[in-house]
Amino acid sequence: MGELGLVHRHEKSGQLHGLMRVRCFTQDDAHIFMTPDQIKDEIKGVAGLINEVYSLFGFKYHVELSTRPEDSMGSDEDWEMATDALRGALDDLGLPYVVNEGDGAFYGPKIDFHLEDSIGRTWQCGTIQLDFQLPLRFELEYTGADGEKHRPIMIHRVVFGSIERFIGILIEHFAGAFPTWLAPVQVKVLPISDKYLEYGQSVLDQLNAAGIRAEIDTRAEKIGYKIREAQMKKIPYMLVVGAKEEEEKKVSVRSRFAGDEGQKGLEEFIAAIMEETAKKEIREVTKEEK
Q1: Which regions form coiled coils (predicted)?
Q2: For the chain, which domains are there?
Q3: pLDDT, tens digit, for every residue of 10-40?
Q4: Strands 237-241 and 187-191
C-alpha cells in the first residue's frame, strides 16, 4: 500500500532551510507486509528500486544501517533476525554501508539513503524501516503454510523521502541546467523577425503535438538577444527560424550542449529529441556558450 501523503513537522525556525528542511512536505510513503523469511528479498527489491531512481538522475549517495536503540520495543530475537536480514540484503547487493549503532527506530532497524548535493552536503532521502510493532498493535495475522496464524512484518519505505527536498537537491545538482527530459521548457522557437512568426507558430504546433514542451519568443527583439536570454534560462534547445528555414521547411538548431548544430528538418529534430527524452539521456556540454 502506498500514497503521496502530506506530512507536517514542527521544525524550529532556525532549522528551516529552503526546500531542504520545511514544516510541511509530501512523502512517497508505502508499506509492505511480508513473512519473516521474505524480509531479505523485499529489502533487496526496495533497495534496487531506490538505486534505479537515484541513478536515473545521476546522484551519488551512501547508505547507513541503523541498529537497535536503547529505548526500543520487541524481543532480542526479532531485532537480531531483522538486523541480519538488512545486513544480508546490503551485502548481497554489494552496497557499501556505514553502521550507526543504536540509531534505529524504536520499532525496528532501518536503512537510510543519503544523497550528495552539488557542494558535497548530504541529505537523508530514501528509507527502508522494518516494523514489528504496528502489525502487533493492529492485530494483523496471516495463515501460514502450516495452517496456523502468524504475525506479519511490515516495511515502511520511501524513495524520494520529502519530494520537496528531492526537488531542491535536483535543482542544485544540475544548477538549473536540467537534462532535456527534465527541463520544464525543452525547446524555444526563435523567429528572426515578425515576418516569420507564422512559420514559427507552425513549428511550435508540431513540437507540442509530439508532446515536446516548447515555447515561442514572439517579441520584436534582435535574434542575438533572444538566443542569449534562452541560454541564460538554460533551455536545452533553441530553434531559429527565418527566410531560409521557412523556404526549406527546416530549423536552425542551437543547443545548450554543443552550440550551433546546423540546419535540420523538423521531423528529424523531433525524432532526435524524442529519442533523447525516451532514453533519459544526460548530455554532456561539449561547447560552452559565450
Answers
A1: none
A2: 2-174 (3.30.930.10), 187-278 (3.40.50.800)
A3: 888 887 777 778 888 888 989 999 998 898 8
A4: parallel
